[in-house]
Write a structure and sequence with these properties.
Radius of gyration: 12 Å
Largest sheet: 4 strands, antiparallel
Shape: globular
Number of strands: 7
Order of helices and strands: EEEEEEE
Number of domains: 1
Mean pLDDT: 94
Distance between the termini: 29 Å
Number of helices: 0
Strand content: 35-45%
Strand order of the largest sheet: 4-2-1-7
């Protein structure tokens, strides 16, 4: 499969913890679908200390993986809210 676009999308979304409403990431998202994965190269701002763990309530919202040969965070369903 092809790698994600090097140029990347322009639309930025904020990702919040569903449990405690803490802002976790600012991310350049492409498309209209649900947030399933976050490519690490598209993360604009990261407010977490440990990767994939909310610093406020310490719940795990994502795990690190490789998708199409590119480092990404695979989002756990129902753990984040996108605005």
């Amino acid at each position: 499969m092809a790698k994600p676009s090097a140029k990347g999308p322009v639309k930025t979304v904020q990702i919040y913890c569903e449990k405690c409403k803490f802002q976790l990431l600012k991310y350049r998202k492409g498309g209209k679908g649900a947030l399933v994965k976050c490519f690490k190269t598209r993360i604009v701002e990261n407010f977490t200390i440990d990767e994939g763990v909310c610093p406020s309530c310490e719940s795990q919202f994502a795990r690190s993986t490789l998708i199409r040969g590119t480092p990404a965070l695979k989002i756990v369903g129902g753990k984040v809210n996108v605005k």
